[in-house]
């Protein structure tokens, strides 16, 4: 049976492949998957960055905009970090994404590289589960104008510089004052990002089907300052009241040296990322495997 997806874009892991062996491993995996897709009747293309870093010149190359408008499917080979970057760029086009895990954790790249052919073949024929994940849209406002804007699939983090003291942040939700928080920083996380930095500071796990955000302080001065879950329909404003060398991080996109009075405004993006999972996939299986629950029981 031929693939349901005719035009497939391949995205590879290459940003952290400093050693030749790692880069060669990534190149081999991409070439192997590309040949498999071709045998399934797919027309395979690579994005420009993947092609230039891996040297796979035997496949057509498209810019990201062309991939978003011309392809039926994006197949990401790498780890969750690779998927985060591609997800942000492809969300506006509604391009569905599958992930083959060549990284470590694999919360959102859930097809094992070792058995990808057995898992991927029925998915290409239409046997999969679709899931939409929300994105954050954040802007840095300075003197009533936006000086930086970005999407985040995991989280928006405002934190102090490495050698400075704590920061003070004025937090408002939908224009209502919440508190002046003195801490090392503050995290606004999506359900996808609830298993990332937010989890390490005591934030709750959130099922990706929930419409909400986690707001979690980093090392708060007041111990009663706890993580809180907010509706995803709200707008969160974080104003820099005091502190030096304050920075903001939007997934892997950073803006350093914020100044006093800057406001980071966070709200739900109009776009969502669409993931395609193997048939029978469920979130709790992923948590149990990745969080090592029930081991030794």
Explain the overall architecture.
- With 297 residues, this protein is α/β, with parallel strands linked by helices.
- The chain folds into two domains: 7-126, 3-Layer(aba) Sandwich (Rossmann fold); 136-270, Probable inorganic polyphosphate/atp-NAD kinase, domain 2 (Tumour Suppressor Smad4, Sandwich), CATH 2.60.200.30.
- The protein contains seven helices and 18 strands.
- The strands form three sheets. A six-stranded parallel sheet has the order 3-2-1-4-5-6, sandwiched between helices.
- Strand 16 (246-250) and strand 17 (253-258) form a beta hairpin.
- The longest helix is centred in the N-terminal third of the chain and has 20 residues, at 20-39.
- The mean pLDDT is 92.
Short overview:
This protein is an alpha/beta fold and 297 residues long. The protein is built from seven helices and 18 strands.
Spatial strand sequence of the major β-sheet: 3-2-1-4-5-6
CATH class of the largest domain: Mainly Beta
Strand content: 35-45%
Sheet with most strands: 6 strands, parallel
The dominant shape is elongated
Q: Which SSEs are present, and which pair or pack?
A:
Elements: E1 7-12, H1 20-39, E2 43-47, H2 48-54, E3 61-62, H3 64-70, E4 73-78, H4 80-90, E5 97-101, E6 111-112, H5 116-124, E7 128-142, E8 145-152, E9 155-159, E10 167-173, E11 176-183, E12 185-189, H6 197-200, E13 212-218, E14 228-231, E15 236-242, E16 246-250, E17 253-258, E18 263-278, H7 283-290
Parallel strand pairs: 1-2, 1-4, 2-3, 4-5, 5-6
Antiparallel strand pairs: 7-8, 7-18, 9-12, 9-16, 10-11, 10-15, 12-13, 13-14, 15-18, 16-17
